[in-house]
Amino acid sequence: MVDTVFFAELTWPEVEARIAAGAPVFLPLGATEQHGRHMALNVDVVLPTSISARAAARTGGLVLPALAYGNRSQPKTGGGPQFPGTLNLSAHTFSLIVRDVICELYRQNVRKIVTVNGHYENIGPTIEGIELALDAIGRDRARDLVILRVDHWEMVRPETLARIFPDGYPGIELEHASVLETSMMMALRPKLVDLSRASHDGPARFLPYDRYPKPSEEVPPSGVLSLTEGSSAEKGEWLLADCEAGIVEMIEREFRERVAQ
Ligand code: ZN
Ligand code: MN
Fold first, then answer.
1. What's the gap in Å between 212 CA and the centre of ligand 2?
2. From the CA of 94, how far away is ligand 2's center (Å)?
3. Is CATH 3.40.50.10310 what the domain over 7-260 is classified as, yes or no?
4. Which of the listed residues 73, 83, 217, 250 has the most CB atoms within 10 Å of its CB?
5. What is the pLDDT along the chain (261 residues), one digit of tens a residue?
6. Distance CA 90, CA 101 (A)
7. Where along the chain do its domains lie?
8. Is 254 helix (H, G, I), strand (E, B) or coil?
């Protein structure tokens, strides 16, 4: 059998055997979205895919191809739609893709599914997609199905955040393209980061309400919502290690009687 955690690198008999052996199946949920002048558009795809691969390697899991388009980028959490390169799905479309992939996995006898999200705006539509899948499969029939939904940043331990942000954590919404994402990208894909292009025009200061059409003046011109100063590959590795450990622990807890040996 091919030694890979990536579902789509296997043949169908290999996938069939891994599912029969009880492999948890990871679905990385990403976005193609601006991440400042200093990083590539694929940050929200690279991070959940890499974290899923690390957790899958330790739990006998398989990682599906990532959903590389995210729910509509918002100025407050991703810079919004005015940046070249940001490609948005509507929440409705995103939810239906999540629903259909889960239903297809269920049809193929997968009963342990983990969605690993890398894009803030995907949270609501992912929950809706999971609920729609349970409706479509039938809640009674789906009793043997367990779906775990994770936002990777929630797996970072408070001690690690305190080490990285001694002056206080700005919160994940403002962390777009900032120290967390930049550090993890420096650890995983250093060629896709060029800190010399970071312009330090943040942090963003948003009003405590939304107006539509959305004004773009509140978003720093670079697209970075907080600061990139202090990013490093070493900090990225601390963050990735927390994410990996948190997901492995979650899988061991939630799938205890289900994980095949
Ligand atoms: Zn991001
Ligand atoms: Mn994002």
1. 20
2. 14
3. yes
4. 73
5. 578 999 999 999 999 999 999 999 999 999 999 999 999 999 999 999 999 999 999 999 999 999 999 999 999 999 998 999 999 999 999 999 999 999 999 999 999 999 999 999 999 999 999 999 999 999 999 999 999 999 999 999 999 999 999 999 988 888 999 999 999 999 999 999 999 999 888 889 888 998 888 877 889 999 999 989 999 999 999 999 999 999 999 999 999 864 444
6. 17
7. 7-260
8. helix
